[in-house]
């Protein structure tokens, strides 16, 4: 069914959506989508930094457990 939608069909759908919701509502919705994507990317980066910090902390101490007891 959706395989045969071409450029004219997409333009018609865009016009109908614009008429139904109005330009202001669509722009505010796209702004919220943009904020959500930005927040998601920020969360991914923070999680990756946290994992890197944990890996760095475990990599710092390479002394075997039995030698730690001797010190």
Automatic annotation (TrEMBL):
Q: Which residues cross the membrane?
A: 6-22
The alphabetized UniProt keywords are: Cell membrane, Membrane, Protein transport, Translocation, Transmembrane, Transmembrane helix, Transport
Q: Does the keyword Transmembrane apply?
A: yes
The UniProt entry lists membrane topology as: Single-pass membrane protein
InterPro entries xref list: TatA/B/E, TatA/E
Q: Which GO molecular function annotation, any one, does this entry have?
A: protein transmembrane transporter activity
Asked if the keyword Cell membrane belongs to this entry, the reply reads: yes
> Compositional bias (Basic and acidic residues) spans?
62-71
Task: State the Gene Ontology BP annotations.
Answer: protein transport by the Tat complex
An annotated GO cellular component of this protein is: TAT protein transport complex
UniProt cross-references to Gene3D superfamilies, sorted A to Z: 1.20.5.3310
Q: Where in the cell is it found?
A: Cell membrane
Residue ranges of the region described as Disordered: 48-71
Quaternary arrangement and interactors, per the entry? The Tat system comprises two distinct complexes: a TatABC complex, containing multiple copies of TatA, TatB and TatC subunits, and a separate TatA complex, containing only TatA subunits. Substrates initially bind to the TatABC complex, which probably triggers association of the separate TatA complex to form the active translocon.
Q: Which family does it belong to?
A: Belongs to the TatA/E family.
- Function summary: Part of the twin-arginine translocation (Tat) system that transports large folded proteins containing a characteristic twin-arginine motif in their signal peptide across membranes. TatA could form the protein-conducting channel of the Tat system.
What protein does this entry describe?
A: Sec-independent protein translocase protein TatA
The protein's organism comes out as: Shimia aestuarii
Gene name, per UniProt, is tatA
